[in-house]
Structure formats: structure tokens, C-alpha cells
């Protein structure tokens, strides 16, 4: 089995690289957590974007105008994080569905419910 690549945060931690809030927009310059998300954004020109950013950890708000390359990297990072949350939600949904089905099966086996309960 091939070795997995270290996650970005692990690579940065091991390299001693500190995130730069000007280029790593997901990092808060106030609390240094990576919980920043865009509240509003719009293109300023063909080469740059204005964004209103908020840190979900410490509620710091800031404005940033960044080139397309940084905005694109931020977009990819936000998509990656949304994908992680989506997979976690799907897992929770499956677990809850299995638990509900098992409860229904147990109730049916013990004659706790019958067809009249559904009419």
C-alpha cells in the first residue's frame, strides 16, 4: 500500500512554515486558526478579487483584495474542506439510518408495532 501524502497542515507544522494571512486566506491573522471563510466577494478587475472574510473562531472580520492565483487557491481549499464536511455528514446520515432501521426491526420482532400504527 503506498504511503499517504501528509496533509497541508502537517507539512507546514513539520517545515516550521507559518501561514501568511495575505496568501493563506483561510488563516486568521488574529488567532492563527484556519477557520476563515468568505462572507462576500466580487471581482475588482480581471486580475483580482475583493473579499470580506470572517474568522469563525475569534469573529475577526477583514477585507482583502487578492490576485486571481490566491483567490483560486482559497477556492480550492474551501472546496476541499466542504468535501470533508460533506463526507462526514453522509457518514452520520448512514449511521442514523442504520440505527433507525435496527430500532424498527427490533420493534417488529417484539410485536411492539403493527400495521395499524401506520394507518
In short:
42% of the residues lie in helices and 19% in strands. With 119 residues, the protein is α+β, with helices and mostly antiparallel strands.
Blueprint (SSEs and pairs):
Layout: H1 8-15, E1 36-43, E2 48-55, E3 61-67, H2 68-109
Antiparallel strand pairs: 1-2, 2-3
Describe, in plain words, how this protein is organized in 3D.
A hairpin with a 5-residue loop joins strand 2 and strand 3. The mean pLDDT is 86. The chain has a three-stranded antiparallel beta sheet. The protein is α+β, with helices and mostly antiparallel strands and 119 residues long. The longest helix has 42 residues, at 68-109. It is elongated and about 65 Å long. The protein is built from two helices and three strands, in the order αβββα. Helices cover 42% and strands 19% of the residues. The chain has one domain. The N and C termini lie far apart (54 Å). It has helices spanning 8-15, 68-109, and strands at residues 36-43, 48-55, 61-67.
Amino acid at each position: 500500500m503506498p504511503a499517504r501524502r501528509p496533509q497541508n497542515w502537517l507539512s507546514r507544522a513539520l517545515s516550521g512554515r507559518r501561514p501568511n494571512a495575505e496568501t493563506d486566506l483561510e488563516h486568521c491573522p488574529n488567532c492563527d486558526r484556519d477557520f476563515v471563510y468568505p462572507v462576500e466577494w466580487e471581482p475588482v478587475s480581471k486580475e483580482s478579487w475583493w473579499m470580506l472574510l470572517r474568522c469563525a473562531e475569534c469573529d475577526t472580520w477583514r477585507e482583502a483584495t487578492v490576485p486571481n492565483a490566491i483567490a483560486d487557491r482559497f477556492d480550492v481549499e474551501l472546496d476541499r474542506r466542504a468535501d470533508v464536511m460533506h463526507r462526514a455528514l453522509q457518514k452520520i446520515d448512514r449511521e442514523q439510518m442504520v440505527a433507525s432501521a435496527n430500532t424498527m426491526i427490533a420493534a417488529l420482532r417484539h410485536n411492539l408495532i403493527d400495521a395499524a400504527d401506520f394507518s
